[in-house]
Amino acid sequence: MAKSIISEGKTTNEAIEKGLKQLNVSKNKVDIKVLENEEKRSFFSILTPRVVKVELTVKEENKAEGKKETREIEKKEIILSEEEQEAAKNNVDNFMKEFLKYLPDGTKYEIEKTKTGLNINILNADLGYLIGYRGETLYAVQNILSAIAGKNIQNKVRVILDIEGYKAKREKTLEDLAEKVAKTVVRTGKAVTLEPMLAYERKIIHSKLQSHPKVETKSIGEEPRRRVVISLKK
Q: Which CATH architecture has domain 82-164?
């Protein structure tokens, strides 16, 4: 049976937000029914506290949706020909030669061809601004390089960019976080919702705990504030 709760607030929106927080789900995951509307108030009720009641019922998910919550969507790999790999490398190489003029002196880069695209590493300890807060700028640059790499190539070119080994360090930080929170969940029996993360960061958390004997993970919310919830297995 679908889970339902009654939530109250001074306005309909406030009541809904409180209910969503209690259920720990996003708005598109529930059916909402207003039980008492703030507009329907008599003259004699203006001196009493305003209360709006709404009923929130969690929608039933099909198996496909359930898998999407516990794992990030796995994209089908597109295998590139040798000619496509070389063309993609040349596209990025030409761009990087110009891009280096705007980067600190001594900056170098490496490009490795793969069957699905390119691995690019930019090397300079003074490129923190190109990484940005938790890698947001790095991933923006990666998207730009993906578009450049795929110029005049029919298949999609997958570009993986790293700067001074940032991704390996971030992955270790997230794996340590996953283990620490899992221990807390097991000890307290209470689910923990992590702060909003990028898709690749959520995937690291899911992968780290997918074989854990006592906890499970799922993603909730909408981008860019999608979060991972770690809870005890049912």
A: 2-Layer Sandwich (3.30)
Range 219-233 average pLDDT? 92
Q: pLDDT at residue 203 above 90?
A: yes
Are 183 and 170 within 8 A, CB to CB? Answer: no
Q: Yes or no: is domain 168-232 CATH 3.30.1370.50?
A: yes
Cis, peptide link before residue 224, omega less than 30° from 0: yes
The candidate with the shortest Cα–Cα distance to 160, out of 122, 191, 103, 125, is 122
Tokens standing for residue 111:
């490009």
Average pLDDT over the chain, rounded to whole? 85
pLDDT in tens, 29-39: 888 888 855 44
DSSP code, position 225:
S
Report how far residue 219's alpha carbon sits from residue 198's, in angstroms, rounded to the nearest whole number.
11
| Inter-residue contact 187 to 181 (CB < 8 Å) | no
